[in-house]
């Protein structure tokens, strides 16, 4: 995760980590770089697409490996594949939290989207809003 955290910071301006305070409590920190005119020139659209494509493709590939191990009855590999799915999924979740914001924002965004989709279906409106 460290290497992707470095590439995430350099390519798209996102990073996340765990911080433990003096009381021993764990705090997750999710950061997104503020877009300025100079930084927007250094972060290209192609680099951003490559980063997100790789970040999404890896968990999908691990899920394919999981089904392959499950259906071929290779139980000894299933534990490795499940750990790959969990770790890549956690990395994807961390970057999505950085990009979207706090969990409350993510929940409200999903609820708003689902509400719009439901309203569009019930009214028969095919035009996106």
Explain the overall architecture.
- By secondary structure, the protein is mainly alpha-helical.
- It has one domain.
- 70% of the residues lie in helices and 11% in strands.
- The protein contains 5 helices and 2 strands.
- A two-stranded antiparallel sheet has the order 1-2.
- Strand 1 and strand 2 (26-32) form a beta hairpin.
- The protein is extended.
- This is Golgi apparatus membrane protein TVP23 homolog.
- Keywords: Membrane, Transmembrane, Transmembrane helix.
- It holds the Pfam family DUF846.
- It is found in: Membrane.
Short description:
The chain is mainly alpha-helical and 129 residues long. It has five helices and two strands; from the N terminus they run αββαααα.
Which secondary structure elements does this structure contain, and how are they paired or packed?
Elements: H1 2-11, E1 14-20, E2 26-32, H2 37-42, H3 45-71, H4 75-100, H5 103-123
Antiparallel strand pairs: 1-2
Helix pairs in contact: 3-4
Which key phrases capture this entry?
two-stranded antiparallel ribbon; 5 helices; mainly alpha
Proportion of residues in β-strands:
5-15%
Overall pLDDT metric: 76
Radius of gyration: 19 Å
Sequence stretches where pLDDT stays below 50 over 5 or more residues: none
Number of helices: 5
- Based on DSSP secondary structure assignment, what is the total number of beta strands? 2
Question: N-to-C terminal Cα separation, in Å?
Answer: 37 Å
Structural class: mainly alpha
Q: What proportion of the residues is helical, as a percent range? A: 55-70%
Number of domains: 1
| Strand arrangement in the largest pleated sheet | 1-2
Described by strand count, sense and barrel closure, the largest sheet is: 2 strands, antiparallel
SSE order in H/E notation?
A: HEEHHHH
């Amino acid at each position: 995760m460290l290497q992707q955290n470095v590439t995430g910071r350099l390519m798209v301006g996102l990073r996340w980590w765990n911080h433990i305070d003096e009381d021993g409590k764990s705090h997750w920190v999710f950061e997104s770089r503020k877009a300025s005119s100079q930084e927007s020139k250094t972060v290209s659209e192609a680099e951003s697409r490559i980063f997100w494509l790789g970040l999404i493709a890896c968990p999908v590939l691990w899920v394919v490996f999981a089904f392959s191990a499950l259906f071929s009855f290779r139980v000894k590999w299933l534990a490795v594949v499940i750990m790959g799915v969990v770790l890549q999924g956690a990395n994807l979740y961390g970057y999505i939290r950085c990009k979207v914001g706090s969990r409350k924002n993510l929940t409200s965004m999903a609820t708003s989207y689902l509400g719009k989709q439901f309203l569009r279906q019930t009214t028969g409106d095919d035009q996106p809003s």
